[in-house]
Protein 1
Amino acid sequence: SLQLNSNHLTGTISTDIGMAASLRILFLQENFLTGTIPEEMGNNVKLERANLQNNYLSGEMPQDVCDLREPTGSISFLTADCGINDEPRVDCAVPDCCTECTYKSPSSQPSQFPTISFSSCLSQVLGVLSTVSNRTTLLTSGTPQSRALGWLLHRDTFYSCPFDLAFVQRYIMAVFYYSTDGPSWDVCSAPRNLTDPSSIADANNNCVASNPGDYQFTGGEGDAWLTPSHECFWGMVRCRDDDQVVAFIEFDTNRLGGTLPSELQHLNDLRVLRLREGSTSGRIPSEYGTLSSLFLLVLSQNNITGTIPAEIYGLPKLVSLQLNSNHLTGTISTDIGMAASLRILFLQENFLT
């Protein structure tokens, strides 16, 4: 059994695959594989299941592979991107060769939009998200951006292609989750199984604000992050009621770690970013200086390093800047005089010089 599905694998399927004489299960779906399916797969005479869909494969399914289908052969399930709208497309007749052209895991909730081919979806998503995140970072396995992309394409059951532009906000929130070590949060972490209703319900029940009186969730109680509900309903998030645009992200004592993602700069109406009493490290992204609606920035009692970006002082509505109890260094820029709306400034307990 070789199960490498739902990753970011690239390149082609080697002709050496035919040497795997004992192979029965082959899961390569949901990757970025290109090229054609090698004829040598016809040598895998014990193969029972081969999932090849949701890649960039093209050409024809080799006849030697088709000949392995039941009842003359052992393959009971064979998939590829062979739908009429798939581009690139694998020519694989159904049901004579492929058992089906696409396969999606059962969703606990119907998608809001009709689906299109995975390859078309991937092209669309990468085109848009490359304006939000560095494309190389997006495609580098293990980065918060890559993990968010993988979740959006393969595991999120709330949206499906073709997306409207609202999915950018959802992606940014997922990047925030993975950047701040969301799986280790005390409350509101994503469920272990994102398609299991009982797992989702357990995670939602664990999403309780540490200071419930401080939070007013859009629509009531907060859901766990990455669950199949609108991101405005996730715990510690508040949105504008009229258009479901994220306006508040507020965490107190929830064991946030990791680093602050620059992608938050694209939450154009973010007004409050409060992340207190965690272990978040790294620098404050200078890109936060573009958050023109931000009036409260609280990052106190973390492990943040580096200097205070001068761009922060240019925020026209910034009323409260609380960066105390961190590991900030450097000097206080003369640009602080530009913060005309500033009323509260907490910089104590740092290493400023």
Protein 2
Amino acid sequence: GARRGPRGGSRKKLAKTERQQRDATNKALIAKANADTDLLAGTEVVRDIGEKFDVHFEAVAGAQLQASEVEACLSLLSASPALAEAAGWKQEEAERRRSALAAPDTHVLLLRKRPLPDEPPALSDAEAEGWVVIHHPVEPKDLGRLAPLAPPPQPFTQAAGLGGGREAARGEIVGFLQLRFCIQSDRPVLHLQELELAEPVRASGLGEHAMQTAEELARKHCMSGLVLTCLKSNPALSFYCDKCRYSVDETSRSAAKEYVTLSKGVPA
């Protein structure tokens, strides 16, 4: 047969080198994204959430989720209409979801109701009628009978750490977005593993805002796109395709399967 010339061999070697460089670049991007300890920093969409919703985002590494937060997420999943219709909620399914939430490469955006501000002290009857009330200083002999003053309330901060400090302020969990940076089909992508909202905040625009935040995170970490898997019977499928502009990915499984893989390039 014909012998391969040096030119063909050089092209093959060059292609191999380029593939190795691309793989190394992709792995470095994923490692950098997973090492990000302040996932929401610099994201534009998150800044105006306080003006639109009575909710705030909190980014937590899966391995740093507290037990109460994991259970809150599982409770939301167990109430999902799509999950109930597809397979029900069994113990083994709960354990599988619990393991996925706590995986080392998982990131979770918790959607919390903003805690209500402390109410001002009630006015006395005299103050309510417009009288000026002068409070006399406490005599030194009475100090021993007084209860100690409570410490002043601490202000809420977006990034209050990943440890026990999160327990202090942060309001009821009304939704979550579970994310994973990974390589799929030789490209770095942000995989949206779960999006679940409590029934009172569905159809409020909050889900679309969460998806826009995911796009911001993908852009921040130079991902080539976003990927998610959805049940074909899930009513949210039209939300992903029509509202969020996802389309069926070329790697999607055959039409006989009950799931479909959707993807979207990172908007410029």
Protein 3
Amino acid sequence: LTEEYLEPIDSNIMGAPAAKKTVSVLESNPATTTKFEAFLGAITVSSFIVIWLSSAASPLILFISLREGYYKITAFIILITIIAYLPWKRGPISRCVQRFIDSNHPQYYNGVSIVFEGGEVPPSEHRQTFFAVHPHGAFCIGWALLFTCPTMHRVRFCFAPSLFASPFFRLFSRAVGKPGSAARPSMNAYLKNGEDCALPPGGFEEATLTSTSQDRVFIKKRYGFVRLCLKYGVAIRPVYVFGEGRLFSNVQGFWGNRLALNRFGIPTIIVWGRWFFPLLPKKGVKIYIVVGKPIVLPKIENPTKEEVAVWHNKYIVELKRIYDEYKEDAYGADEGKVAKVEVW
């Protein structure tokens, strides 16, 4: 771990002492990355995205294989499903896969940094925490980097229920981390049991808004995670992934229609990365992930709309504070001075 001392930051809204330093838990240096390491990084990130997409298409693949008589494919899908849903625990093979991904994935980018505010990782006094990650991006690349980061191995990363139910993605995610479902009953159960959780609250809408030239978050109407954290007295740590939006180009505009479809669980991104393989992120992008200080919430079993709104507003203020404070570290002095985040 490396430490960097900063000026004290006023944190009266946090209910916690001001953090005086940050701790970096991951620093990849592109200057020392070999072409072979970058190739392994490309294999890792493309595999993650292909598994993601094939998981979404797995019901259709199963239907076609049954209809057309491709019984070997049918048997393979059934086998994967059985393995994915069996109550096994991670062993040597899973740990090897996780270490391979954790060591090679960051080598693809033009540097990766994961920085925690607060000065201690893990903290000497652990407090149950909810990590809210922004922006979603096209394929949650920053989220994926956090998912396999050893520092975050105790955290349950909550995925869209349909994605987590898919056998391909369920098996993959169980092999490399601690996944869970973002369904409301599941989230209640995790937090009630005292688990730390992570979620990209911006969801499909935030993915739709992805742009290579403008940072955006979709949070103004996202109250559910704040209500849950108030119910169980769980601290919230805002997380911002600088560079996420620059990894994939995305068709812009028609926001009203596209966001309306998102409310029905229909993704409306039209994205592409590199010209020869559109599912591979663009090269030359620096990923800078900042895990903010905990916002310490009171425990209110049945919070009112007004109480939720108060803490939701404090969350947005803190998220914007993180963006403004670290944008020059992420983008450089010249670009960082003019960079702004749109809050939808």
Protein 4
Amino acid sequence: MPADGHAIPFIALQDGKFNVTDEAAEFLKSIDYPVSVIAVVGLYRTGKSFLMNRILLEQSDGFTVGPTVNPCTKGLWLWNKVMTGEDKDGRLIHYLIVDTEGIGALDTNSQHDSIIFSLALLLSSNFIYNSVGSIDEGALNNLSLVVNLTKHIHVKSSNAGGGEDDGADFAQYFPSFLWLVRDFTLQLVNSDGVAFSSKEYLERALQPVPGFTEQIEAKNRIRRMLTHFFPERDCFTMVRPVTDESLLQKLSSTPSEQLRPEFVTQMGTLRGTILNSAKTKKMNGTELDGLALINLAYAYTESINTGSVPSIQNAWNYICQSKCQHALTAALKNYENAAKDMLVNLPMGVDELDMTHRKLEAESWKLFEKDAIGDGLEEYKKG
């Protein structure tokens, strides 16, 4: 069944600044429950949008798909409807879909690509990297953006001290990583002809290359960072969707009956793989709803636009302050409404009035604690 909704700009580059759009903010603020965030990233013109439409939206259109070498998606885009699905245990999954501008486009530079890559990582709970061919040295080199992640993302605040971040610091905040390899033609068998899984194929590709030259060290650095940053990783391979070259230019409008049966089967398997691994977006053990996600996006883009490096710790503090203020406003409103209802019982004695006040205050504080997150909640009680 075609999905309701449509793609909206999430984070757009305007006048040299990355800005969260009002449309995306309004949509996300309406989501008052935790969600998974699935982001797809890859080189431009490698079929990311086609993948999302057919597999995650289960329809032929949605995110923009084009037949030329001009990238169709600028910045980050968001499907403006919370999607639902079931995992293998029948658990209901609520997820958002984020599409990204293809990296390596002709009209961008490595700095721009690193920002797009970093924003997708920081905002998602499930990160899909889409590539074509195989996982060889060229494919790994295309992921060299990973090497620069520590330059574009910090875990700790610059004011907090504590030394540099390491792989373990990042790993606890980074999403799961699924490397999707399209148009795959290799046979996954070892030298004895025994088949092995696509996950093992990825693990073999991430094994260090022997040697000590500068070039080999650069190759192994990418492998080490992928291994340390993404302890929760997997791989999925797919055959070429069609054998007719002319259909490659119009895949989005090609009915499933004209796609290779093996590819259609793999689409269904991949959808199950993605939903089975979907996890709610969390920070410091706290599940994030739409309001928290939009504040996360605000915090990161504000850092980028001011020329500083986005800090996960600072972003968490930003979310906590916003969430606590929102919870405080709701708690005070609850107290005011209850106090107005109490007016019908006036007059009452001082002791009764004090007891009623304490009861309303306790109820409102309980309401605040239910929605507030972070440390230092007692400070709000003093205020």
